[in-house]
């Protein structure tokens, strides 16, 4: 069975920065090819990509990941019917218990600190819910209590004692997934049937060369000091590194299509939700940047090269091109040699495995250093890249394609 897999390969220069730090404040790193490399975790770049979605997609297409699920649902119940606002938290807690099957309680620490017990209950761990799912639960709640004025909480509790009614609430939570849930998945530890398999995989970004951590010693002057008062008001150090990163992500388009479902509007193609999600993911993943210490370093860069390939069978990373670390060129810099390595490795690997013609390939690149990558696909602009990938996804998802 032919699959549709989207591979995204990126080379990106990042100047002194601390995009993603560990518990000591040091930039994350990893050993690869026997040498220490700069590393940015997949979690950090997924978070940056999700944040970028806010600029690319309407709110109803996105989700929220939070323990404060009762608060989020209560806001929607109150928005639908302002008369329910005083009791919205109680109604939301009852509905959320039925829908998720997990304990929805006031955290012990907060209960101890709050004398009147008015703290909103929370789920025991972060839950990922789409805004449409929250709206569906709010609508269900309002419908159930419509005929029980003055007795709303008891009516709702009684309603959800029925197994079929509880199943209806769970169904509301397991349909119309948002783009971010469909791409990155959802795990509900106590209700495995509510889990969503992720359609996107994101690798930890690695520097193509050895990278050491450096420290910046800084001082801050007290503005109110007199001239005679010498010395700093504060001193400290901040760790940083710089790197040419290889970034990689793969999207299982078929899984994404299953998670999102078909287009629902009149005249809308069945593949429309998946096309939109693919376009948003491409733009967000390519252009986003984790914001660790961004105010300190101002390290706003965009990729120098992006290669996108459509696969029929497996996702394929090209990170092996850099297993032997790239040496600095005679005039400095790692990008030119990185592009040569990537082009040579990708070409040989695809020929030997017979996967060169599995689908179209595009190359979006900036600068003469990236010239060697032109053999890997059609040279395009970012806008053309996104448009042509969406068209290819649409063609492949057509019935009988």
Characterize the structure shown.
This protein has 401 residues and is of the alpha+beta class. The chain has 13 helices and twelve strands. Strands 1, 2, 3, 6, 7, 8, 9, 10, 11 and 12 form a ten-stranded mixed sheet that branches. Strands 4-5 form a two-stranded antiparallel ribbon. α2 packs across α3 and α3 (88-100) packs across α7. The longest helix is centred in the C-terminal third of the chain and has 19 residues, at 335-353. The N and C termini lie close together (12 Å). The mean pLDDT is 92.
SSE inventory with pairings:
Layout: E1 5-17, E2 29-32, E3 35-40, H1 42-56, E4 63-66, H2 69-80, H3 88-100, H4 108-113, E5 127-130, H5 131-145, H6 152-159, H7 163-173, H8 179-184, E6 200-202, E7 205-207, E8 214-220, E9 234-252, H9 253-260, H10 272-287, H11 294-297, E10 305-311, H12 335-353, E11 361-365, E12 378-379, H13 382-397
Parallel strand pairs: 11-12
Antiparallel strand pairs: 1-9, 1-10, 2-3, 3-7, 4-5, 6-9, 7-9, 8-9, 10-11
Helix pairs in contact: 1-10, 2-3, 2-5, 3-6, 3-7, 9-10, 10-13
Question: Would you summarize the structure shown here?
Answer:
The chain has 401 residues and is an alpha+beta fold. It is built from 13 helices and twelve strands.
Largest sheet: 10 strands, mixed
SS content category: alpha+beta
Helix share of residues?
25-40%
Q: Rg, please? A: 25 Å
* Number of separate helices: 13
Quantity of strands, as a count: 12
On the 0 to 100 scale, the average pLDDT is: 92
Provide the low-confidence segments as ranges.
none
């Amino acid at each position: 069975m032919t699959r549709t897999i989207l591979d995204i390969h990126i080379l990106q220069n990042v100047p002194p920065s601390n995009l993603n730090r560990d518990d000591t404040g040091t930039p994350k790193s990893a050993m690869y090819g026997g040498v220490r490399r700069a590393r940015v975790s997949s979690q950090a770049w997924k978070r940056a990509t999700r944040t970028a979605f806010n600029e690319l997609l309407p709110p109803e297409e996105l989700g929220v990941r939070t323990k404060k699920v009762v608060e989020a649902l209560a806001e929607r119940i109150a928005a639908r019917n302002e008369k329910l606002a005083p009791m919205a938290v109680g109604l939301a807690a009852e509905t959320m218990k039925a829908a998720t099957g997990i304990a929805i309680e006031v955290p012990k620490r907060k209960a101890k600190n709050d004398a009147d017990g008015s703290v909103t209950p929370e789920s025991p761990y972060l839950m990922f819910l789409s805004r449409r799912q929250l709206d569906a639960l709010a609508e269900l709640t309002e419908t159930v209590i419509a005929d029980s004025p003055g007795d709303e909480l008891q009516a709702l509790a009684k309603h959800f004692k029925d197994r079929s009614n509880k199943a209806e609430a769970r169904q509301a939570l397991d349909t119309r997934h948002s783009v971010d849930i469909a791409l990155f998945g959802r795990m509900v530890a106590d209700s495995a049937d509510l889990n969503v398999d992720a359609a996107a995989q994101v690798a930890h970004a690695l520097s193509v060369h050895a990278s050491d951590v450096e420290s910046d010693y800084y001082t801050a002057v007290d503005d109110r000091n007199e001239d005679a008062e010498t010395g700093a008001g504060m001193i400290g150090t901040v760790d940083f590194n710089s790197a040419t990163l290889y970034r990689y992500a793969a999207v299982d388009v078929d899984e994404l299509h299953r998670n999102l479902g078909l287009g629902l509007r009149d005249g809308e193609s069945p593949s429309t939700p998946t096309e939109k999600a693919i376009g948003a993911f491409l733009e967000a993943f390519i252009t986003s940047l984790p914001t660790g210490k961004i105010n300190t370093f101002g390290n706003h860069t965009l990729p120098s090269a992006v290669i996108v390939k459509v696969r029929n069978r497996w996702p394929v990373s090209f990170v092996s091109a850099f297993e032997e670390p790239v040496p600095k060129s005679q005039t400095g810099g790692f990008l030119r040699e990185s592009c040569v390595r990537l082009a040579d490795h990708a070409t040989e690997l695809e020929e030997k495995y017979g996967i060169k013609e599995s689908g179209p390939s595009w190359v979006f690149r900036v600068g003469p250093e990236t010239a060697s990558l032109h053999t890997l696909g059609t040279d395009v602009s970012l806008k053309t890249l996104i448009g042509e990938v969406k068209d290819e996804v649409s063609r492949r998802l057509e019935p009988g394609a």
